[in-house]
Design goal:
By secondary structure, the chain is α+β, with helices and mostly antiparallel strands. It is built from three helices and five strands. This is HU family DNA-binding protein.
């Protein structure tokens, strides 16, 4: 399902216009992105948690030259699915 299909489904399910459904979806996405960007976590019941994970600096290897390189520490996005989502995928 792509974004437009999701918007159509939301509009039909909630009995609202596609424009209203798309506005709500865009607001949800923006809220999740802003929360994760600020380093906080957002939890949506029956869906999961969106947050970040700190990755420590480490040594790596350039596959082309074999040279050892230093990979900087960084923060990456993390999603932890809720039990209800895991159960639904397994069914």
């Amino acid at each position: 399902m792509n974004k437009q299909e999701l918007v159509k489904h939301l509009a039909e399910s909630a009995d609202v216009t596609k424009a209203q459904a798309e506005s709500v979806l865009n607001t949800l996405v923006t809220t999740v992105v802003d929360t994760v960007r600020s380093g906080n976590e957002i939890s949506i019941t029956d869906l999961g948690k969106f947050g970040t994970k700190e990755r420590a600096a480490r040594k790596g290897r350039n596959p082309a030259t074999g040279e050892s390189i230093e990979i900087a520490a960084k923060r990456s996005p993390k999603f932890s699915p809720a039990k209800a989502l895991k159960d639904a995928a397994a069914a």
